[in-house]
Design goal:
The structure holds three protein chains of three kinds. Chain A contains six helices and four strands. By secondary structure, chain A is mostly helical. A two-stranded antiparallel ribbon of chain A has the order 1-2. Chain A has a two-stranded antiparallel ribbon with strand order 3-4. The longest helix of chain A has 27 residues. In chain B, 32% of the residues lie in helices and 5% in strands. Chain B has a two-stranded antiparallel ribbon with strand order 1-2. In chain B, a hairpin with a 2-residue loop joins strand 1 and strand 2. In chain B, helix 3 packs across helix 6 and helix 6 packs across helix 7. Classes of the chains: A mainly alpha, B mainly alpha, C mainly alpha.
Chain lengths: 208, 256, 488
């Protein structure tokens, strides 16, 4: 193999072959996917509201994906359904509104595909983000205090503020107030649910 | 320059790179190098070719079996030519699970959904989420408890003498069996010793308040007597005759 | 003078080859000197920073309260910065420096206008720096291996374009004659990388890609950066250093050719094995699983080729640093690739997916194979560029053993911990609390191994700086671990 043209063609063709299979073909097959609409015009997956979309950016900026996945595998591929992390496996259509997708490759923390079904209370999320160990005392998740402001309660408490009793970073008489980023992130987390059925992904009845 | 310790004759000084064109004085490292690498001519051995052929064959068979016909909407390895094991389950369907008791169902659901706030030990979080262990809301009548599961509760609430002010989401989306399971579980966990509830009772409770769209407030719930239980399921042993339905009025917008 | 160099190997040594050949090599070395030393120096700086950030990320996993006040140091950014520093700062530049020198030597063509590649290298470093700062400041794209914000990637691409063009031009201008296997790998790597990097970035930034196709492009890129950029450079170096140091030809041209083309054909299809069980058409996943299984062919081919070349000469591992680092790397290449084949098989993947086991595998490949091979190359190349020999065999020994034990320990702790984590995850009756608590000890052990690796790098960096300052040993013999039997 001493000739440059032959080497070049070989190098190019094998590369193109794999690109065709792993990039072009998936795009041809899945690029046109749209949300599924029902008779009343509701979209599945539903579009995220703007605050939740901003929250996805906060999720990206802080590397949440590197501990938390967002995909439910089928029964034969893992225990995701057994752990009740979802009511069905996820399919490509579930992610049509996501850019980028946070499929994730690590489960240092639990899967978050359906965290909005399990934990709908924004306050739980704010407390958890401010000090994860306060809600889950064995957690190794880092604290995101920088998404919050600790301020003295002046007269009336802030409408979004909350108390953190016994937390060394919140002195007596102070409250924790989420920044816009924190609210966006929590809105995003609460929006994470895939409990609707799709024609290619039926929801089998729960339990037993 | 003196001879080096291994007895080689004196070397000329190394190439001085301040004079890059002076290649007459050669670099000692390059000097001692062996020739540039060359290819040998050993042929491929037969066993290697056979082994690689076997690898290709196995790979090809797997590719043929598990490609789902190269369809864009075949997501399961069981689509296409293979059927799910256990006989009878159609493509894409989940495998039927074994029967669990009501308490087991409830425990599983509790651990996955409720423990985040009420904690695995039922003790809740001080200042945030009320305990379930030893709580009168859990161990006394089951009628209020069922309604809490069905519609959630928001605003200040006193549990064991302590006021909590938060929001519990409604678990309306769960089926009757699961709600009955969770209630049955928490009523006998962590030292609680209250009786079970049946899915049919939950169905009836759900029907009673199906027009409610908002969370309960404590005030509204206190309208239900503390010790009141739901009517027994049909066929169950008769209990004390049920009182009049205190929640007859359709849910109005709750007071702030 | 040259006739007095003693060798005991019956191969033509420099003393009997044409003076022209030696002069040519010196010309080549002189032309490469500033660019290659620049790339090596930059690479080593990023290696030190990358080791620091890696250690910090590891420590934060079992001690999440450490340094958690500042958003710039939150784990999700530190871990991402670590990966990009070692991938684009250390590994890519070590590879570029080694690749340019190897290409120049094997093509017998000096690197013309080397200043251009130095300028390219400066831009590359600026790009990486801007990208890292961007990640720490919160602009990570959260696409694995492509986290640099969009304002950093064009710098890297332009810098690379210059480097790639220069490398390919050297191949075009090669002296006529047989093209050696390392040259195929290098030509291919220098061509594949810009296609990969450019395509991935264009598709993800400019093209309206949405949904899971993002995932497909992401892992097509990320796995190919390992298999079509780093692996070929590592193999090119191994194919050069092993026969060069021992003075024997590579075992078989046919194995070399088979290994090269099957690597190109199969490796490029592997990407989706990172997403087994994920939301994709099953044919896509199966194609990658099959391609991963087929990797048995190139990997065993290369292993046999290297082993048969080394046979009878394993004794030289006791003396030659280049050979020791390179052969360690080549053996780990076989091991990590076989491990990878098993991990792609769905039955095993059920256990290891989403666990620390995968992280262990990644470090075994990028450090145990690629980084150790690059160390071997640097130990060979640097004396030829600075005109003196490595000063201290003791420092090289410390470097080797700290690195070797460090990576073995790291991979062992992550593999065991990851296997445990995966087994627990697979059993739905294990709570997440049990899983986290069960893996903590292994994460702590990993931090300890990180200390060993960081120390190894400090020793190496210090030794390298001595060489840059021409404080190495003057004199004709290479630096060996023990007293040598043969020259190198």
């Amino acid at each position: 193999m001493n000739s440059l043209p032959r080497l070049f063609i070989g190098i190019f063709v094998v590369f193109l072959f794999a690109w065709g299979g792993l990039v072009a073909m998936p795009y041809l097959q899945l690029g046109g996917l749209q949300p599924q609409a029902d008779e009343e015009g509701n979209q599945f997956p539903p579009a995220r509201d703007p605050l939740a979309e901003e929250g996805a950016q906060v999720y990206a900026a802080n590397g949440c994906m590197y501990c938390h996945s967002q995909q439910i595998r089928p029964e034969y591929a893992g225990s995701d359904l057994g752990r009740e992390w979802g009511v069905r496996r996820t399919v490509p259509r579930d992610y049509v509104n996501d850019r980028p997708v946070f499929l994730g490759t690590m489960r240092t923390g639990p899967d978050l595909t359906n965290v909005g079904l399990r934990l709908q209370d924004p306050l739980w999320h704010h407390r958890h983000l401010y000090n994860p160990q306060s809600m889950v005392n064995w957690s190794i998740m880092p604290a995101f205090r920088f998404l919050y402001k600790v301020q003295r309660v002046k007269g009336k408490p802030h409408p979004d503020g909350f108390a953190m009793v016994g937390d060394p970073t919140v002195p007596e008489g102070h409250e924790v107030v989420p920044t816009k980023e924190a609210k966006a992130l929590v809105a995003y987390l609460i929006s994470l649910k895939r409990d609707y059925a799709l024609k290619e992904a039926p929801v089998t009845p729960t339990e037993p | 320059m003196s001879a080096d310790p291994h007895g080689h004759p004196p070397q000329k000084p190394d190439l001085d790179y301040s004079e890059p064109h002076d290649i007459g004085r050669l670099h000692a490292a390059v000097m001692r190098e062996k020739g540039e690498p060359r290819d040998g001519n050993e042929p491929l051995s037969l066993w290697m070719v056979s082994f690689f052929g076997a690898v290709l064959l196995i790979g090809g068979i797997y590719l043929g079996l598990y490609s789902g016909g190269f369809q864009p909407d075949s997501y399961s390895i069981y689509d296409g030519s293979m059927k799910a094991p256990g006989g009878g389950a159609a493509a894409g369907q989940e495998i039927v699970k074994t029967e669990l008791t009501l308490v087991q169902i409830g425990e599983k659901a509790y651990k996955s959904n409720c423990a985040a706030c009420h904690q695995p030990n039922g003790m809740g979080v001080a200042g945030a989420f009320p305990p379930l262990a030893g709580s009168e809301w859990v161990t006394k009548g089951d009628r209020r408890l069922a309604q809490i599961l069905l519609h959630g509760i928001a605003g200040p609430m006193v549990v064991n003498g302590i006021t909590y002010n938060g929001v519990m989401q409604s678990w309306n989306a769960w089926d009757d069996k699961r709600i009955a399971g969770v209630i049955t579980y928490i009523r006998q966990a962590w030292g609680n010793t209250a009786g079970p509830v049946a899915p049919e009772q939950i169905a009836a409770a759900r029907a009673e308040t199906k027009s409610r769209t908002t969370n309960w407030t404590e005030a509204e719930l206190r309208a239900i007597p503390e010790d009141e239980n739901m009517p027994p399921a049909p066929g169950a042993a008769p209990e004390a005759p049920p009182t009049g339905d205190p929640v007859a009025a359709p849910a109005a917008a709750p007071a702030a | 003078m040259s006739a007095t160099l003693q060798t005991t190997v019956a191969k033509p040594s420099a003393s009997t080859e044409a003076e022209g050949e030696v002069v040519q090599r010196v010309e080549v070395d002189a032309s490469c000197r500033i660019p290659v030393l620049f790339f090596f120096s930059s690479a080593i700086c990023w290696l030190l920073l990358g080791s620091l950030f890696g250690f910090l990320a590891s420590w934060k996993m079992h001690n999440p309260g450490i340094l958690d006040d500042w958003s710039w140091l939150t784990w999700g950014r530190v871990r991402v910065a670590h990966l990009n520093m070692v991938a684009y700062g250390w590994a890519s530049q070590a590879g570029i420096g080694t690749g340019l020198w190897l290409m120049s030597r094997l093509c017998r063509a000096p690197l013309r206008a080397p200043g251009v590649t130095v300028v390219a290298g400066i831009f590359w470093n600026i790009g990486v720096t801007v990208g890292i700062v961007g990640i720490l400041a919160g602009h990570s794209q959260s696409i694995e291996w492509l986290e640099f914000p969009a304002y950093a990637t064009p710098l890297l691409f332009v810098a690379y374009a210059l480097i790639g063009i220069w490398a390919v031009l050297m191949f075009v201008n090669r002296r006529p004659g047989h093209v050696y296997v390392s040259q195929w790998y290098l030509l291919a790597a220098f061509l594949w990388f810009p296609w990969l990097y450019g395509t991935a970035n264009v598709l993800m930034q400019a093209f309206p890609l949405k949904g899971v196709t993002y995932g497909a492009v992401n892992w097509w890129y990320a796995h190919n950066v390992l298999g079509l950029w780093f692996t070929p450079i590592g193999l090119a170096s191994a194919y050069y250093m092993i026969p060069k140091v021992i003075g024997r030809p590579v075992h078989s041209y046919y194995l070399s050719a088979l290994g090269f083309w099957t690597l190109a054909l199969f490796y490029s299809w592997n990407g989706m094995h990172h997403l087994i069980g994920g939301p994709f058409p099953i044919w896509l996943i199966t194609a990658s699983v099959v391609a991963s299984f087929m990797m048995l062919i190139p990997v065993l081919t290369v292993a046999i080729n290297h082993h048969m070349t080394m046979r009878g000469h394993f004794g030289l591992l006791a003396s030659s640093p280049t050979l020791r680092f390179t052969v360690f790397g080549a053996m780990v290449y076989t091991l990590v690739s076989l491990q990878g084949v098993t991990m792609a098989i769905p039955v095993w993947n059920k256990i290891t997916h989403f666990t620390h086991y995968t992280v262990g595998h990644a470090h075994l490949g990028m450090y145990g194979f690629f980084t150790m091979t690059m160390f071997g190359a640097m130990y060979y190349i640097v004396p030829r560029l600075v005109g003196c020999e490595w000063r201290s065999p003791l420092m090289i020994k410390w470097h080797f053993w700290l690195s070797a034990y460090g990576i073995i320990f790291m991979v062992a702790s992550l593999s065991l911990g990851g296997f445990l984590q995966g087994s627990y995850l697979l059993d739905k009756d294990y709570t997440f609390k049990q899983i986290v608590e069960g893996t903590l000890g292994f994460l702590q052990l990993r931090s300890v191994s990180g200390i060993a690796l960081a120390c190894a790098h400090l020793v190496f960096a210090f030794h390298f700086v001595l060489m840059l300052l021409r404080l190495g040993r003057k004199g004709g013999e290479a630096t060996y671990f023990n007293s040598p039997e043969t020259g190198a």
